[in-house]
């Protein structure tokens, strides 16, 4: 007698990729306002055609729910957030104003004590690297600390390393809100490189409306 799973069981190594591919395929017709990442669906809406943002949002939610029902996908109501001005997305908070870093992650990084060995430094950099886009010239800034992680390099924490450590903390403590890309404007790609880092920036120029001096 042969048995066949009715649904994919947990524990198989290809479950995450298969599930992500399935959800992406199901929601493909709605991706303009409902992108997904694994089991998270982010529905975003704005006022249009004389309707308020809330009315448009409710319309979008209905389309998402109908698509989920047709494909037997189920949502956990306790984990759902509706009509929120800001939502957490992969360690950041996204709103119409832009993308800001998660305050809890910033607090964890800024409260981290001075590393005493390579393991502790590697752990701290693992946290800080996740929010590197909020620190200007991050790769160049941390280069002195990164050099301590090279093979066969003896641990020697000097004042210059402490200065860099404190500078990254200070930068993240005042992390800016990053603007969302405006696809109606042309994008420019800016590149730079040095002996120990490369930098690529995709940006769009904002028009100055009013200026005074």
Automatic annotation (TrEMBL):
Pfam families: RT_RNaseH_2, RVT_1. CDD domains: RT_LTR. Residues 4-93 form the Reverse transcriptase domain. Residues 157-199 form the Reverse transcriptase/retrotransposon-derived protein RNase H-like domain. This is Reverse transcriptase domain-containing protein. It comes from Phytophthora rubi.
């Amino acid at each position: 007698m042969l048995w066949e799973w009715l649904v994919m069981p947990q524990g198989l190594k290809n479950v995450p990729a298969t599930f992500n591919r399935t959800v992406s395929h199901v929601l493909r017709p709605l991706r303009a306002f409902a992108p997904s990442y694994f089991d998270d669906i982010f529905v975003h809406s704005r006022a249009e055609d004389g309707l308020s943002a809330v009315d448009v949002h409710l319309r979008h939610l209905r389309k998402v729910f109908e698509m989920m029902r047709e494909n037997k996908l189920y949502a956990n109501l306790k984990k759902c957030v509706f009509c929120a001005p800001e939502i957490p997305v992969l360690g950041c908070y996204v709103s119409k104003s832009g993308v800001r870093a998660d305050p809890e992650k910033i607090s964890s990084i800024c409260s981290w004590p001075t590393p005493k060995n390579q393991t502790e430094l590697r752990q701290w950099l693992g946290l800080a690297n996740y929010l590197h886009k909020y620190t200007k010239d991050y790769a160049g800034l941390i280069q002195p600390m990164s050099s301590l992680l090279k093979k066969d390099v003896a641990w020697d924490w000097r004042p210059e390393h402490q200065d860099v450590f404190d500078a990254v903390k200070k930068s993240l403590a005042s992390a800016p809100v990053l603007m969302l890309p405006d696809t109606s404007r042309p994008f420019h790609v800016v590149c730079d490189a040095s002996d120990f880092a490369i930098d690529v920036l995709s940006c769009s120029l904002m028009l100055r409306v009013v200026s005074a001096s």
